[in-house]
Amino acid sequence: MTYSLAELCICAASRAFEGDGEVLATGIGVIPRLAASLAMKTCNTDLMMTDSEAFMLAEPNPLGQRPEGFRQANESWMGFSRIFDNVWSGKRHAMLGPTQVDRFGQSNTSALGGSYQQPKVMMLGARGFPGNSISHPNSFFVPAHSTRVFIDGECDFVSSVGYNPERLPRGHSLDDVDIRMIVTDLCVLDFGGPGHQARLVSAHPGISAEQVQENTGFPLHIDGDIPVTAAPTAAQLEIIAAMDPHNQRAAQIKDNPPGDPAPGDRA
Amino acid sequence: MNKLMEAADVVAQLQDGMTIGIGGWGPRRKPMALVREILRSGLSDLTIVSYGGADVGMLCAAGKVKKLVFAFVSLDFIPLEPFFRQARQAGTIEVAEMDEGMMLLGLRAAAWGLPFIPTEVGLGTDIVKVNPALKLVDSPYDDKEWVAVPALKLDASLIHVDRADTRGVCQIAGPDHYMDDMFARAAENTFVSCDELVDSDFFADPGEARLVFWERAATTGVVHLPGGAHPSSCSPLYGFDVAHFKEYAGYSKDETGFAGYADKFLGATEADYQAAVGGLDAIRQLPLPVY
């Protein structure tokens, strides 16, 4: 069975939501959204989801233009003001794509380089990252794993909190922080190493632990033989194809490589 | 009370240095015709509070902005608003960056007459370091530290709605009213442009009245500006204009810059603008976005 790297990432990322119970799963971007949708249809059928606009859905919407007569499965209103009632209740898990991630799991969506008054590269702004990160679990998807994303120092601008003891607010514990999972085009990471160190959970087919470490600007906890990220099942691939009928997933990782490459192809 | 006025009357009530809130969200339901009227005016040194889209980009590019209170500025399908980026990267505007929900709390505090609302949002991030207006405070009820989000008091708010009557009853018929109710309540004066002007008995139907998110006392003036959200959307009447936004963004890479865009489209009146973008019928034909 052949599958793409994007499909492998969607399946791996869907597991981030597995133990969440009844929470709002928010996947921003094609792969995170498909991962949340797949989780809602497989490993956690209690998940909640929005239409990315203003309604909660009993069934995730397929991506992109939908056929004439399509009727989405609304179950409640969820405009942007109400989203924060949910966020601050903690009953949410977001998967997002920040521009920088540091060794603490802090992330940056705001600005790169220069000074704060005059950044070299202005990006989106902090968006909802500060509130998300202090309120509920967060995961990241990184389509091009490199030392430019996983930097050696601290983020140029800390948009979301991580496991940084120096920034821990008074009365809070590092155990309150929940950076659940990072899925990249190379591997799956979490922060389950000693003292919340970033840990290599699995490497994608054809990728070595050394390769992951070389492309990461901070030391990863790599303990023993690292498993290979599980291949998608036929049932998972069928659900993904139905959720993404226009194959937007093919445009998410450069050159849309296969998930199970010929030996040496991704080394 | 008849609150009907013209766009020029709205701008005449604004002054240099004012703090102005702008409703909508990114490329969605922005009071763009009122923004264009500001672009045509001599107003300057404004502090803008917005869930920003091209409203912020255009006002920055035209040199109207002294300070911006923001959580993001984005056109969604063009994630990074090009003229906002230019202004930030040139260091020409002051900024007070916030979290999206934090901005809602600031507007609520202003609407409710509170000096601040406490939250844990922002703790541990650079938001509280770079924005000196955000203070850390103790709680009388626990030993934690909290962020005090100060009231975002607005001199004026500008909002676009689907329908209004001349008394200032405003209906938002699209799927989300965003934070517009709080923008209306947080402001000394709230000016609303509407796509359709309706008789007051339109709201007698409870289904229609249910889509009114603030009472008319919070509306100062109503301007009838069909298509006035263009190039942003006014769902369900029309979607945002993808082709127009692409052309607008293109000017950020053109040597004429925003002046080139303004020369081609802005005109002396909204009628000029609508003629330059193909007319109201073309605006009303713009398809709704699919997410």
Record keyword descriptors for this entry:
heterodimer, A: 267 residues, alpha/beta, Glutaconate Coenzyme A-transferase, 6-stranded mixed β-sheet, 3-stranded antiparallel β-sheet, B: 291 residues, 8-stranded mixed β-sheet
Element layout with pairings:
The complex is a heterodimer of chains A (267) and B (291).
Chain A (H helix, E strand, L loop, with lengths): L4 H10 L9 E4 L2 H12 L7 E2 L4 E3 L16 E4 L2 H10 L2 E5 L3 E2 L5 E2 L2 E2 L8 E2 L6 H7 L2 E5 L36 E6 L2 E4 L8 E5 L5 H6 L19 H10 L24
Parallel strand pairs in A: 1-5, 5-10, 10-11
Antiparallel strand pairs in A: 2-3, 3-4, 6-7, 8-9, 11-12, 12-13
Chain B lengths: L6 H6 L6 E4 L9 H8 L6 E5 L3 H8 L3 E6 L11 H9 L3 E4 L2 H13 L3 E4 L7 H4 L4 E4 L6 E6 L3 E11 L5 E2 L8 H7 E11 L8 H4 L11 E4 L17 H9 L6 H9 L4 H7 L3 H5 L7
Parallel strand pairs in B: 1-2, 1-8, 2-3, 3-4, 8-10, 10-11
Antiparallel strand pairs in B: 5-7, 6-7, 8-9
Helix pairs in contact in B: 2-3, 3-4, 5-7
Mind explaining what this structure looks like?
Chain A is of the alpha/beta class and 267 residues long. Chain A is built from six helices and 13 strands. In chain A, the strands form four sheets. A six-stranded mixed β-sheet of chain A has the order 1-5-10-11-12-13, with helices on both faces. In chain A, strands 2-3-4 form a three-stranded antiparallel β-sheet. In chain A, a hairpin with a 5-residue loop joins strand 6 (100-101) and strand 7. In chain A, helix 1 packs across helix 2 and helix 2 packs across helix 6. Chain B has 291 residues and is of the alpha/beta class. Chain B has two domains: 7-97 and 153-282, 3-Layer(aba) Sandwich (Glutaconate Coenzyme A-transferase), CATH 3.40.1080.10; 119-150, no CATH class. In chain B, 31% of the residues lie in helices and 21% in strands. In chain B, a hairpin with a 6-residue loop joins strand 6 (135-138) and strand 7 (145-150). Chain B starts with 6 loop residues before the first helix and ends in a 7-residue tail after the last helix. The mean pLDDT of chain B is 98. Chains A and B meet through helix 3, strand 9 and helix 4 of A and helix 4 and helix 5 of B.
